[in-house]
């Protein structure tokens, strides 16, 4: 997992509330068995027209927003299924942070595990960022827990453990191996 | 200061970590299926890791299963995913309820029916409907593939303890109003994210009178209200259900004595409480594209209030002010981890018996598991469904999520006993209307929803 310190990029706003995992990825990507790239499957239903061509009205296809590493969105982002493929698709597309009004709990964990930093800001802060010009730069600073743009800085919260994992790119299993003695003890005590 | 049941369960499973911080929890059971596990096994192989406790891991096939002919998988990608789970479980020594196996079925149906699920456990699965298992007085929650891999490798999981919410359900359910209407009514009133950050415990005299299968329907849809954990205190109904199943704990009396300690000390221990008067509930039908967009059968669909509702009306092709009986139903789906159990099929069969479904309606009946299917056939329910004009299928997730050949056609309105009405959920362009098994059965007969309080009274 690629460590995150700061991310400086323009942003893509998709401001709907309740964007569910069914919208974030196609069904076919769920049938994948390999750690493939899911980039092309992100927002599958809205990103492409029935002809297969890119839907010019969808913000992800705005040429001015190409290469953006930060997605900005509404309430309850990532609701629905536990499919981590949704977070992988965001990551593979190139998003390194998602700023939302709030997140679904299962998606939030999947995002952390996939190395995509989930940031919750207030409704007003999200709307303000979404309204910035397409080329405006936004900087996310994970150590400082701030989002900065156009001279304004917003603080965000993140649990210190999740923060350190994202900052170092450490895998969970490596971390947990330090607790093998405790796991053995728990099994002895409870079996 | 007392503790909630959830807090007691949590505390008993903490391996490491301090309160207030993410803690390492021990997992008593991981259920796996073909969709969210392949990359987890790949990760284990890449890092030369083993499955720590294959004996606490159980696999089944459900999402991709073709329910018309389970052994004839035409979709090559689906077939590969199924074969991958067969290969992975063999390599890592995990029990798989394979296609045709007597234990196979939807993961949240087979866990309880096999006695793998019982009170006092932490149960995880790479599926958001894992809260189903909380109906037994356990912690059950959905996880992603990275967490699946972590649990396979370590039998533990890092979690931040949620806050506690009590949902107090009291009063007598009116005739024609079912457990499904309790959870749909709750989400219709409180929205699709009221539970974010919480573990929900459902309690009250209404809950106490429900069967285990009804309790499972409620806990199952907890995630539709935003909470990933939903649970119910175990009682005699729970103990009676658990008794005598394939994997029921051997020393059941000792186990029950322990399970009796699982209760919330005082309602004051909840961080927040929601009150539901069951006697005021009505049969519910979803009109829109998330489960919160749900109204009573005799209630007008709401006005367009924002961009979200405008998009929902566009997709579903209905108008504000209409009511559920005006929806032209051409498809009925009976099944899923919410309502694919024997008691659901019994309710539906009792309504359909001796009648024909509306000629415009295609109806699919998909038992939640092979055991459910066999039990239903032993009661002659399959014949009732078939005589009524329904298609009787093999167990699987089927058209609940359209990852297999069972799909609702584009533009078609489907009365469905499932849990999600998202855009494209049951097939590209499909229009899903969530309702109770009884409501869907009557909708299949009439070609539209009816107020079943008038016929069931």
Automatic annotation (TrEMBL), chain A:
Domain Aconitase A/isopropylmalate dehydratase small subunit swivel: start-end pairs: 4-122
InterPro entries, per database record: 3-IsopropMal_deHydase_ssu, Aconitase/3IPM_dehydase_swvl, AconitaseA/IPMdHydase_ssu_swvl, IPMI_Swivel, LeuD
Record key words, sorted: Amino-acid biosynthesis, Branched-chain amino acid biosynthesis, Leucine biosynthesis, Lyase
Molecular function, one GO term: 3-isopropylmalate dehydratase activity
UniProt entry tagged with the keyword Coiled coil: no
Pfam families: Aconitase_C
Pathway note: Amino-acid biosynthesis; L-leucine biosynthesis; L-leucine from 3-methyl-2-oxobutanoate: step 2/4
Catalytic activity annotation: (2R,3S)-3-isopropylmalate = (2S)-2-isopropylmalate
EC nos: 4.2.1.33
Assembly: Heterodimer of LeuC and LeuD.
Function of the protein: Catalyzes the isomerization between 2-isopropylmalate and 3-isopropylmalate, via the formation of 2-isopropylmaleate.
Stated family: Belongs to the LeuD family. LeuD type 1 subfamily.
Protein name per the record: 3-isopropylmalate dehydratase small subunit
Automatic annotation (TrEMBL), chain B:
Class in the EC hierarchy, top level: lyase
A Pfam family assignment: Aconitase
Manner of cofactor binding, per the entry note: Binds 1 [4Fe-4S] cluster per subunit.
Protein EC: 4.2.1.33
Keywords: 4Fe-4S, Amino-acid biosynthesis, Branched-chain amino acid biosynthesis, Iron, Iron-sulfur, Leucine biosynthesis, Lyase, Metal-binding
All residue ranges annotated as the Aconitase/3-isopropylmalate dehydratase large subunit alpha/beta/alpha domain in the record: 7-447
Keyword Metal-binding: yes
Pathway: Amino-acid biosynthesis; L-leucine biosynthesis; L-leucine from 3-methyl-2-oxobutanoate: step 2/4
Binding site for [4Fe-4S] cluster: 337, 397, 400
Highest taxon listed in the record's lineage: Bacteria
Transmembrane intervals: none
Reaction equations catalysed: (2R,3S)-3-isopropylmalate = (2S)-2-isopropylmalate; citrate = D-threo-isocitrate
Cofactor annotation: [4Fe-4S] cluster
InterPro entries reported for this sequence: 3-IsopropMal_deHydase_lsu, Acnase/IPM_dHydase_lsu_aba_1/3, Acoase/IPM_deHydtase_lsu_aba, Aconitase_4Fe-4S_BS, Aconitase_4Fe-4S_dom, IPM_dehydratase_rel_enz, IPMI_cat
GO molecular function: 3-isopropylmalate dehydratase activity
Complex and partners: Heterodimer of LeuC and LeuD.
Similarity-based family: Belongs to the aconitase/IPM isomerase family. LeuC type 1 subfamily.
PANTHER family reported for this sequence: 3-ISOPROPYLMALATE DEHYDRATASE (PTHR43822:SF9), HOMOACONITASE, MITOCHONDRIAL-RELATED (PTHR43822)
Functional note: Catalyzes the isomerization between 2-isopropylmalate and 3-isopropylmalate, via the formation of 2-isopropylmaleate.
Annotated HAMAP family: LeuC_type1
The protein's name: 3-isopropylmalate dehydratase large subunit
Organism, as annotated: Loigolactobacillus jiayinensis
Organism phylogeny: Bacteria, Bacillati, Bacillota, Bacilli, Lactobacillales
């Amino acid at each position: 997992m690629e460590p995150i310190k700061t991310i400086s990029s323009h942003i893509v706003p998709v401001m709907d509330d309740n964007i569910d995992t069914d919208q974030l990825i196609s069904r076919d990507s769920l049938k994948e068995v390999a750690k493939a790239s899911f980039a092309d499957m992100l927002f599958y239903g809205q990103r492409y027209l029935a002809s297969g061509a890119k839907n010019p009205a969808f913000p992800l296809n705005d040429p001015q927003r190409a290469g953006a590493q930060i997605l900005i969105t509404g309430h309850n982002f990532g609701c629905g299924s536990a499919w981590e493929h949704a977070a992988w698709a965001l990551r593979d597309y190139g998003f390194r942070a998602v700023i939302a009004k709030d997140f679904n709990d299962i998606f939030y964990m999947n995002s952390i595990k996939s190395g995509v930093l989930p940031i919750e800001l207030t409704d007003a802060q999200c709307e303000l960022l979404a309204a910035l010009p397409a080329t405006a730069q936004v900087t996310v600073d994970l150590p400082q827990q701030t989002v900065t743009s156009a001279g304004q800085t917003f603080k965000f919260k993140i649990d210190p453990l999740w923060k350190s994992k994202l900052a170092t790119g450490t895998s969970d299993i490596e971390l947990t191996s330090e607790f093998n003695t405790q796991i053995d003890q728990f099994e002895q005590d409870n079996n | 200061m007392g503790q909630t049941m959830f807090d007691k369960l949590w505390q008993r499973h903490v391996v490491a970590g301090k309160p207030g911080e993410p803690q390492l929890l021990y997992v008593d059971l991981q259920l796996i299926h073909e969709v969210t596990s392949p990359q987890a096994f790949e990760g284990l192989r890449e890092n030369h890791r083993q499955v720590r406790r294959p004996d606490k891991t159980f696999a089944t096939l459900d999402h991709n299963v073709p329910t018309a002919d389970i052994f004839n998988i035409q979709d090559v990608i689906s077939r590969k995913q199924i074969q991958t789970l067969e290969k992975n479980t063999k390599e890592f020594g995990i029990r798989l309820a394979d296609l045709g196996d007597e234990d196979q079925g939807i993961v949240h149906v087979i866990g309880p029916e096999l006695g793998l699920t019982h009170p006092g456990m932490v149960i995880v699965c790479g599926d958001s409907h894992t809260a189903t298992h909380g109906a037994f007085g356990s912690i059950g929650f959905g996880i992603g593939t990275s967490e699946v891999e972590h649990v396979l490798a370590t039998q533990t999981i890092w979690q931040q303890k949620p806050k506690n919410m009590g949902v107090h359900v009291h009063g007598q359910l009116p005739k024609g109003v079912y457990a499904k209407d309790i959870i749909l009514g709750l989400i219709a009133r409180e929205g699709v994210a009221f539970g974010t950050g919480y573990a929900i415990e459902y309690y009250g005299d209404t809950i106490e009178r429900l069967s285990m299968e009804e309790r499972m329907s409620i806990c199952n849809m907890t995630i539709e209200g935003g909470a990933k954990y939903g649970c119910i205190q175990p009682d005699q109904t729970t103990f009676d259900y658990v008794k005598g199943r394939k994997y029921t704990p051997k020393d059941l009396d000792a186990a029950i004595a322990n399970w009796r300690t699982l209760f919330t000390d005082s309602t004051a221990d909840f961080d927040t409480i929601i009150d539901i008067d069951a006697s005021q509930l009505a049969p519910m039908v979803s009109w829109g594209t998330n489960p919160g967009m749900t109204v009573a059968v005799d209630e007008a669909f709401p006005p367009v209030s924002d961009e979200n509702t405008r998009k929902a009306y566009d997709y579903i092709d209905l108008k504000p002010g209409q009511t559920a009986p005006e929806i032209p139903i051409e498809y009925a789906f009976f099944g899923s981890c919410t309502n694919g159990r024997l008691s659901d099929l019994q309710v539906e069969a009792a309504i359909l018996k001796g009648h024909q479904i509306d000629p415009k309606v295609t109806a699919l009946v998909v038992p939640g598991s092979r055991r459910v299917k066999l039990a239903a056939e032993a009661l002659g329910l399959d014949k009732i469904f078939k005589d009524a004009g329904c298609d009787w299928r093999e167990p699987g997730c089927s058209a609940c999520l359209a990852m297999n050949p069972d799909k609702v056609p584009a533009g078609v309105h489907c009365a469905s006993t499932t849990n999600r009405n998202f855009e494209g959920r049951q097939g590209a362009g499909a229009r899903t209307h969530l309702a109770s098994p009884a409501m869907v059965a009557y909708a299949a007969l009439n070609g539209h929803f009816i107020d079943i309080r008038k016929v069931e009274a």
